[in-house]
């Protein structure tokens, strides 16, 4: 019998609603709050992301919300009834309770049906760092790999992946509770632009290399990225930014000239609203597998 697998993600993958439909996947909405006003990820899609980033510059309070277990279970149940096996991948477990909520729902569904229906994969990333893995999952589904085989392959990709965010203003990451007060305080005091990485041990964010200004920070990022790509034989790279087109194009050209990653395997796009509330406007993010 032909294997039927449904792939599900959440809106922090930085796909918009139309793109999710084109992918043929379900995308569950996270939420964000600006100065006390609640928004869902796909609200006001007619408002450009560039305008949204400008708005972020002026807000006093900014926070994000996860996908709850009931929403996951309703979605999983729908496809379980139709005979699908389900793979979910979304925002890192270290950055949100969304992933743990997906596991709660998956356990309920798997127990109800008496077998493994839902497989949850921890991206240890966000934005295009999750998308790069999602694209690989879709390719593996087309190759008729089982969910267990896909999880094994993607878990190894996650282990060797390159994930980095370069926010010019570290305060957004601190305010969202994803960076320690000590690291944020040092960064603000020295007026540095940090390169923020998830640790391999638990995926929590830590500041790594730093530069005085975005230009120097990106220079350090390039050097570290090229070494990592060569050591791990990476073949694809995604770049997402909050309206930093010039910097993204410069990164793309540098990668083409200094690595074996083919131009067609480099994708550039915008960071979604929920993720941009975490990292802040003018952020540059770089990912590879």
* Total number of beta strands: 13
Q: Which spans of ≥5 residues are poorly predicted at pLDDT below 50?
A: none
Number of alpha- plus pi-helical segments: 11
Average pLDDT confidence is 91
Shape label: globular
> How far do the termini sit from each other?
32 Å
As laid out across the biggest beta sheet, the strand order is 2-1-6-7
Classify the beta-strand content into a percent band.
Answer: 15-25%
Topology order in helix (H) and strand (E) letters: EHEEEHEHEHEHHEHHEEHEHEHE
* Highest-level CATH class of the largest domain: Alpha Beta
Give a structural overview.
This protein is of the alpha/beta class. It has two domains: 120 residues, 3-Layer(aba) Sandwich (Rossmann fold); 128 residues, Hypothetical Protein Tm841, Chain: A,domain 3 (2-Layer Sandwich), CATH 3.30.1180. It is 44% helix and 22% strand. The protein has eleven helices and 13 strands. Strands 2-1-6-7 form a four-stranded parallel beta sheet, sandwiched between helices. Strands 8-13-11-12 form a four-stranded mixed beta sheet, with helices on both faces. Strands 4-3-5 form a three-stranded antiparallel beta sheet, with helices on one face. Strand 3 and strand 4 form a beta hairpin. Helix 3 packs parallel to helix 4 and helix 5 packs antiparallel against helix 6. The chain is globular and about 55 Å long.
């Amino acid at each position: 019998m032909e294997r039927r697998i449904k792939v599900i993600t959440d809106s922090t993958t930085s796909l918009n609603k139309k793109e999710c439909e084109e992918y043929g996947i379900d995308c569950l909405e996270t939420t964000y709050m600006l100065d006390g006003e609640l928004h869902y990820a796909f609200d006001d899609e007619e408002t450009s992301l560039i305008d949204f980033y400008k708005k972020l510059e002026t807000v006093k309070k900014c926070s994000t919300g996860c996908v709850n277990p009931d929403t996951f279970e309703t979605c999983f149940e729908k496809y379980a009834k139709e005979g699908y096996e389900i793979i979910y991948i979304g925002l890192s477990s270290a950055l949100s309770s969304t992933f743990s909520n997906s596991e709660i729902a998956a356990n309920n569904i798997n127990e109800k049906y008496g077998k493994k229906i839902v497989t949850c994969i921890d991206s240890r990333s966000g934005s295009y760092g999750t998308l790069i893995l999602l694209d690989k999952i879709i390719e593996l589904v087309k190759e008729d790999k089982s969910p267990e085989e896909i999880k094994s392959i993607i878990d190894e990709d996650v282990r060797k992946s390159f994930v980095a965010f370069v926010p010019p203003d570290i305060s957004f990451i601190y305010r969202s509770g994803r960076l320690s007060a000590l690291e944020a305080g040092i960064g603000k005091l020295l007026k540095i632009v940090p390169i923020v990485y998830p640790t391999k041990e638990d995926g929590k964010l830590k500041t790594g290399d730093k530069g005085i200004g975005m230009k120097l920070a990106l220079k350090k990022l390039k050097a570290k990225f090229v070494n990592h790509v060569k050591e791990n034989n990476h073949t694809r790279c995604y770049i997402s930014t909050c309206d930093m087109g010039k910097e993204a194009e410069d990164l793309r050209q540098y990668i083409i000239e200094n690595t074996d990653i083919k131009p067609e395997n480099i994708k550039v796009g915008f960071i979604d609203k929920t993720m941009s509330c975490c990292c802040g406007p003018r952020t540059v993010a770089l990912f590879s597998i």
